[in-house]
């Protein structure tokens, strides 16, 4: 053991930081979920009370519904669009590098900048979208006050940010498929559509699974988008926009923990949310895997 | 191939391929337009007055009010102060991530020691967990040690991300030959010499990818600074930017000038390093699957 001191020394800076800022906090938040604690007074053990309250809390379930709707509205078009774009990009010879960079650039811009931009463009009164609709005689659409349209705008925003990222990953997968497979399919008389569904998709399954899982984990964590879009000020009780239609679970977690200083409840929300993520990842995993058998 | 080219179906196929390639280009260009439109429209808004944009139909061309809008931004928020804070945080995070992660990744990639599998496995498990699980205790910890409102509260938690180690380890395993390290060992080079003189120079592409990744993440971070930076003197750019957007009678031209000013540095960095960055990103993602 002693003869390995150099290796342990080499990994120790990371592990010390990791234990202090990740390992210990994750378990501590589980401990907090069973306490009542406002950050100042003493902690009081309350058992499953927080979770009981959570189970009966309509705002929590509203936030879960909001999160799931936004997740579906962003993930489905993102992954489908990314697969189509990657296939197109794979088929062309020229300007490949340009397309890759131009389509990836939304992913490196900041969420705050993008959310402000979408807020301006979809603004109910003066936004560009309504102004253009106005020129063809359509009356203004309440993008940022209708509960469904709010989610649609957030979904569009996330789709715009993440399609390029997923496209790059699919493209790498497509490039790894040996050309001989396609030549063999062509010899057997398979057309482009059949080749796509019977060769490309099955070979790409592990990569599609990877993107589905990453998108599930990322997509369910939407927080900054509604927070920036609807943050009038910290004292605003109506967090998440009109009718709290943009109140995602993480936004509710933020509200409970840092605005209401209810640390125990905040911890319960984030752990319940974590269970939801696991359930959805497993379901997605099953769906994509089952497809491989049929 | 030459034989096929002489037959009629092949010439037919070649004739067909041209319009097919053209459709692909048309769709890709459409996608590029959607992808860059927000940047263009941000500039359009930032160079006009808000009332010009509010007109129906709105003004769709660049205007001449950019300097005025920029001045307005500088009057409203402490743009350069917050930018300096962001630069400090992003640079400190990047340098420390590179050092801490590469050192650990080198030990994991090239040496066997008791507990190696267990320690590395823990990292993999924690990479799957949503970061938000740790946020609340991190904040409590920061208030216990008196770091709330300070910039160092942003740097240290950012270093506890395992992605860099995971990613560099794979790169070192394949990219640094064992023979080279053995030869160095015979010449009397110890662990840290092998790390500094052999491994580090050989993994430069991986390090530059990780550098940009860490820098961009630190630059764009919003949630954690929002929670922990309570001191108005130590605010980062993203927080100031969000602050611009608050209020009912938003001066959108001014806000978009701010968005533009905050986005340009990052887009320039990305444009310069894009090729290496994208290649690096795919390498990690595809291997990670």
Q: Cα-atom Rg of chain A, whole angstroms?
A: 23 Å
Mean pLDDT of chain B: 87
Q: Kindly report the oligomeric state of this protein.
A: heterodimer
Global structural class of chain B: mainly alpha
The helix/strand order of chain A is HEEHHHHHHHHHHH
Strand order of the largest sheet of chain A: 1-2
- Helical fraction of chain B equals over 70%
Residue windows where pLDDT falls under 50 for at least 5 positions of chain B: 1-17
Span of the ends, CA to CA of chain A: 51 Å
Distance between the termini of chain B: 36 Å
Strand content of chain A: under 5%
Total number of helices of chain A: 12
Number of strands of chain B: 0
- Tell me which protein chains meet in the greatest interface and how many residues each side has: A-B, 95 and 98 residues
Which labels suit this protein?
heterodimer; A: 294 residues; mainly alpha; two-stranded antiparallel ribbon; 12 helices; 2 strands; 1% strand; globular; B: 289 residues; 15 helices; 0% strand; disordered N terminus; MetI-like_sf (chain B); membrane (chain B); transmembrane (chain B)
Walk me through what this model shows.
The complex is a heterodimer of chains A (294) and B (289). Chain A is an all-alpha fold. Helix content of chain A is 72%, strand content 1%. Chain A has a two-stranded antiparallel sheet with strand order 1-2. In chain A, a hairpin with a 7-residue loop joins strand 1 and strand 2. Chain A is globular and about 75 Å long. With 289 residues, chain B is mostly helical. Helices cover 79% and strands 0% of the residues of chain B. Chain B is built from 15 helices and no strands. The longest helix of chain B is centred in the first third of the chain and has 39 residues, at 8-46. Chain B starts with a helix and ends with a helix. The model of chain B is unreliable at 1-17 (pLDDT under 50). At the A-B interface, helix 1, helix 3, helix 4, helix 5 and helix 6 of A face helix 2, helix 5, helix 6, helix 7 and helix 8 of B.
